[in-house]
């Protein structure tokens, strides 16, 4: 049976060694909050009181900040956009001790009942248009960790978000969200689209860790494109998931 030539742990060890570090220098918490917007990462890290930790990759652009506590710690990770870079970082963090991963980001919305500013918590990915997850064995339709999904739904609502869970679509091609595909997937009950969720859920299942994403609707796709990152509703949704993420990170 064929197997990978090297493991995430070996790769991280090699990168650390070039910087005069080893695994004992890493401060990766059991809980990880992973975002794709640096300002969001900084806000969450500041709210947690997390401090800089050694990065696991070659580049300093994508950084980690960790809160050390009696519950095993919590790390905030600023990650590359898209499944390949996200999964490389996620694999590194799992190798370094992460046990649950919460993705915080934005998404396109396919459901008219959930406009800009509402929060989607994808429960199952039924449309996989990215290439990373196919390299990992697992369920045909990757799913969120049920306990995380339930907890995060309550926390997001507590902090003022309108939430929805359901079927999801993940793509590699940000500029190829075609109208025919949008119409078909929307008719089939798919709630929204992003670029990472299916791969994150698949890898979490494969590695035996928990994962769940909270994604604020940034643009409406079911009709003429309505891009709402400057809407007050979007900022309200962002604030809600940031505060929910912090509370999740600090919980037992």
What does the secondary structure layout of this molecule look like, with pairings?
Layout: H1 8-18, E1 31-35, H2 38-48, E2 51-53, E3 64-67, E4 74-78, H3 83-95, E5 100-109, E6 119-120, E7 124-129, H4 146-158, E8 163-164, E9 167-171, H5 179-187, E10 192-194, H6 197-207, E11 210-220, E12 226-227, H7 232-250
Helix pairs in contact: 1-3, 2-7, 3-6, 4-7
- Per the CATH scheme, the topology name is Rossmann fold
Whole-number mean pLDDT: 96
| Rg calc | 17 Å
What is the 3D shape?
A: globular
- Helical content band: 25-40%
Largest sheet: 12 strands, mixed
Q: Explain this structure to me?
A:
With 252 residues, the protein is α/β, with parallel strands linked by helices. The chain has one domain (8-250): 3-Layer(aba) Sandwich (Rossmann fold), CATH 3.40.50.1580. It has 7 helices and 12 strands. Strands 1, 2, 3, 4, 5, 6, 7, 8, 9, 10, 11 and 12 form a 12-stranded mixed sheet that branches. Strand 11 and strand 12 form a beta hairpin. The radius of gyration is 17 Å and the shape is globular. The termini are far apart.
Provide keyphrases for this structure.
Rossmann fold, twelve-stranded mixed sheet, 252 residues, 12 strands, alpha/beta
């Amino acid at each position: 049976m064929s197997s990978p030539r090297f493991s995430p742990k070996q790769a991280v060890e090699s990168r650390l060694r070039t910087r005069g570090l080893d695994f004992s220098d890493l401060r990766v918490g059991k809980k990880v909050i992973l975002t794709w917007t640096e300002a969001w990462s900084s806000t969450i890290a500041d709210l947690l009181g997390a401090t800089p930790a050694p990065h696991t990759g070659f580049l300093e652009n994508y950084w980690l900040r960790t809160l050390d506590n009696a519950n095993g710690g919590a790390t905030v990770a600023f990650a590359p956009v898209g499944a390949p870079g996200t999964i490389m970082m996620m694999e590194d963090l799992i190798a370094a001790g992460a046990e649950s991963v919460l993705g915080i980001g934005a998404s396109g919305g396919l459901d008219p009942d959930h406009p800009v500013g509402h929060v989607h918590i994808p429960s199952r990915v039924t449309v996989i248009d990215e290439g990373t997850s196919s390299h990992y064995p697992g369920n045909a339709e990757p799913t969120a960790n049920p306990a995380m999904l339930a907890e995060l739904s309550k926390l997001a609502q507590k902090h003022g978000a309108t939430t929805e869970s359901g079927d999801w679509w993940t793509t590699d091609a940000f500029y190829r969200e075609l109208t025919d595909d949008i119409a078909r997937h929307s008719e089939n009950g798919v709630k929204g689209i992003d670029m990472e969720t299916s791969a994150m859920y698949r890898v979490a299942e494969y590695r035996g860790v928990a994962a769940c994403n909270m994604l604020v609707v940034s643009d409406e796709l079911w009709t003429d494109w309505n891009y709402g990152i400057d809407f007050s509703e979007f900022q309200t949704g962002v604030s809600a998931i940031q505060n929910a993420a912090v509370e999740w990170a600090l919980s037992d």
